[in-house]
Amino acid sequence: MPVSRYRQVLLLVLIISVAFESTRAPTINNNIIPHLDKGVHFFVFGLIAWLIAVVLNPHLSTGISTLLAFMLSTLFGLANEWIQAFTLGRCSDLNDVLADMAGAVIFLLIWFASAWYKNKWIAPRTKRPLL
After folding, report:
1. Whole-Å CA distances, 46 to 19, 63, 81, 82, 117
2. Quick check: 1 pLDDT over 70?
């Protein structure tokens, strides 16, 4: 299986896992580490945004795939919080959406900067004349 297929499967599994967890009672105890759930939101939605960008990048430009990844991960975060508003034992929180967006922005900035650096500095050096 090609690497891109693994990334697509990982993205799908991650999205299904997050959607499934949104319909269950919370499992993180915030009394031990305050605001741990915000850190989890930051990391998971950053990873989702990065995977979306990586999966879309072969088909679109880096800038478009980055912007689309941010928008899709933010929409998924909003839908996630909307579902939680109707789930017993859970509540919807705007700070969770902000943590989702912050994770997406940071992960995508790192990805975009690394893609730019690779295209600007590394790729031209590898193109050597045949002779």
Report:
1. 16, 17, 16, 19, 20
2. no
